[in-house]
């Protein structure tokens, strides 16, 4: 891909914790310039996975050549890395490197690396600065933004974590050139989510330009979708950093999707694939409860059916409901479930029942 000089800057307005999201082709070649204000000679750590480091070691080398005292730490590239055992390994390696409270962690990778890196940064010596450099589309449009950090437990996904904001999110869509098609399909789930819950123009782009989005063949279109997604999430996070209200909308598709992931032991499905299945269930529930019109439901179904998804394993409804019952979105005994009353407008409902969820599973059986 050719370098695109246009840089999208999206502010995340969180007072003393405010930061910028920057989106631009070629940004990875300018990391030393962007990170220079924080470089005071301290120890830096790049948390990444082997497959990413094999391709992008020159990015780390360029920082080292620019005077950064920097060391890579490698973790597994799958969901297994989001485990307290790996967090402890990273903490221990940081101690051996001499990292102190002035050290800075760069999370170079997808959502797993970003979540684990943020959790490590939030907890090491009671908190050190970190910067998100996402390399997957899912991380670029969602998980790298907003400060949610976490590891998984056997009982469920993201049950141990913290809200901890990065110093910056630096997004170079050129990282996506090596992304396999399945990863692209999965990652676009979080982008189309914004079209369902907030901005119908994003949904309409998926209706009309789906093939171009999946092929990643239009730089301007891709940059626009990433920047729009970032802007929506930034606005929601700025208004509700700790998920006491509006931020719950970002869980659209995730409640049942997380249950699918958990029952697949985080192996059979990518996160975005599970969320896409969860969106199908959420839309069925929204229509079944009389909120989403038949016309909008069918439009939504037509778009979601274009996403290539692996088949779900056979799961019993009671097992899905057990996982949902442990979900963080249960508050005061009520499930906060995201439904739609129109395309582009998500709502938090406390009226979704176990029977509703069970009925919706027919959409993905």
From TrEMBL:
- The record's EC number reads 4.2.3.4
Q: Which CDD domains match?
A: DHQS
Could you list this entry's UniProt keywords, alphabetically sorted: Amino-acid biosynthesis, Aromatic amino acid biosynthesis, Cobalt, Cytoplasm, Lyase, Metal-binding, NAD, Nucleotide-binding, Zinc
Positions of transmembrane segments: none
Identify the main location: cytoplasm
The family line of this record is: Belongs to the sugar phosphate cyclases superfamily. Dehydroquinate synthase family.
This protein's name: 3-dehydroquinate synthase
Give the source species. Answer: Arenicella chitinivorans
């Amino acid at each position: 891909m050719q370098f695109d000089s246009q840089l999208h800057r999206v502010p995340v307005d969180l007072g003393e914790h405010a930061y910028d999201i920057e989106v631009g082709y070629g940004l990875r070649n300018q990391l030393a310039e962007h990170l220079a204000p924080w470089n005071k000679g301290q120890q830096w750590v790049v948390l990444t996975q082997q497959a990413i480091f094999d391709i992008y070691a020159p990015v780390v080398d360029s920082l080292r050549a620019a005077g950064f005292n920097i060391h890579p730490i490698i973790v597994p590239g799958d969901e297994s890395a989001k485990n307290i055992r790996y967090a402890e390994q990273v903490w221990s390696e940081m101690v051996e490197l001499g990292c102190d409270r002035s050290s800075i962690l760069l999370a170079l990778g997808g959502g797993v690396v970003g979540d684990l890196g943020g959790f490590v940064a939030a907890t090491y010596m009671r908190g050190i600065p970190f910067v998100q450099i996402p390399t997957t589309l899912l991380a670029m449009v969602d998980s790298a933004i907003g400060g949610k950090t976490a590891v998984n437990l056997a009982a469920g996904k993201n049950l141990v974590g913290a809200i901890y904001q990065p110093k910056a999110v630096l997004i170079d869509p050129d990282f996506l050139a090596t992304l396999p098609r399945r990863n692209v399909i999965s990652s676009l789930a979080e982008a189309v989510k914004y079209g369902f819950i907030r901005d119908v123009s994003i949904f309409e782009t998926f209706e009309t330009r789906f093939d171009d989005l999946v092929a990643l063949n239009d730089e301007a279109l891709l940059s626009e979708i990433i920047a729009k997604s970032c802007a929506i999430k930034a606005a929601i996070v700025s208004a509700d950093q700790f998920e006491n209200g509006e931020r719950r909308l970002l869980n659209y598709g995730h409640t049942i999707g997380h249950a699918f992931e958990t029952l697949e032991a985080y192996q059979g499905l990518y996160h975005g694939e599970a969320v896409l299945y969860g969106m199908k269930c959420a839309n069925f529930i929204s229509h079944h409860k009389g909120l989403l019109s038949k016309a909008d439901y069918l439009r939504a179904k037509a778009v979601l059916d274009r996403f290539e998804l692996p088949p779900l394993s056979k799961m019993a409804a009671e097992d899905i409901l057990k996982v949902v019952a442990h979900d963080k979105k249960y508050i005061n005994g009520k499930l906060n479930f995201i439904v739609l009353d129109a395309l582009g407008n998500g709502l938090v409902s406390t009226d979704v029942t176990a029977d509703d969820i069970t009925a919706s599973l027919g959409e993905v059986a």
